[in-house]
Write a structure and sequence with these properties.
Distance between the termini: 54 Å
Strand content: 35-45%
CATH architecture of one domain: Beta Barrel
Radius of gyration: 17 Å
Number of strands: 11
Largest sheet: 4 strands, antiparallel
CATH topology of one domain: Thrombin, subunit H
Shape: globular
Number of helices: 0
CATH class of one domain: Mainly Beta
Structural class: mainly beta
């Protein structure tokens, strides 16, 4: 029996898509907890926030070559933080703090940083606990009490 490679269902593409803005590889995308926004990070040294309904960019963090992003779709205070990683460095930004908003092309100051023993490959959060997986096999489990409700 021949397998159907097309599938029976169809996708409906938002007429505002694709959205453009990054100038290099987009390494990860994630939804906000309420599904109203998407965050994308790129090797072009930006993290961009997009309105799902309109497809428009609503915010940008700049100044680091972001490879990973985590923490936007969660609960409690994690909805107001974004966790980025590049190389061996993990940074946490508070996206709900107006004083931390970056102008285009200017880096916002992170609220916390962590230097892993090796290059970071993956990051996941559960409440105020952050797990960092590294390229050479190390796993770091961090406590970030300021992320707790």
């Amino acid at each position: 029996m021949e397998e159907d490679q097309e599938g029976d269902e169809e996708f409906v593409q938002n007429p505002e898509c694709p959205v453009t803005g990054h100038s290099d590889l987009v390494t990860l995308v994630a939804f906000s907890g309420d599904g109203a926004h998407v965050v994308s990070c790129s090797l072009d040294a930006t993290v961009r926030f997009w309105d799902v309904a309109s497809g428009r960019q609503v915010r940008q963090l700049a100044g680091d070559r972001f490879a990973l992003v985590e923490g936007l779709s969660g609960e409690h205070k994690r909805d107001r933080h974004i966790i980025t990683a590049h190389g061996e460095t993990l940074r946490i930004y508070e996206i709900g703090n107006e004083q931390q908003h970056a102008e285009d092309g200017v880096a916002a100051a992170p609220v916390a940083c962590f230097k892993a023993p090796e290059r970071i490959n993956s990051v996941r959060c559960f409440g105020a606990t952050i797990c960092v997986g590294c390229m050479e096999g190390a796993v770091c489990i961090l406590s970030a009490p300021f992320l707790a409700a």
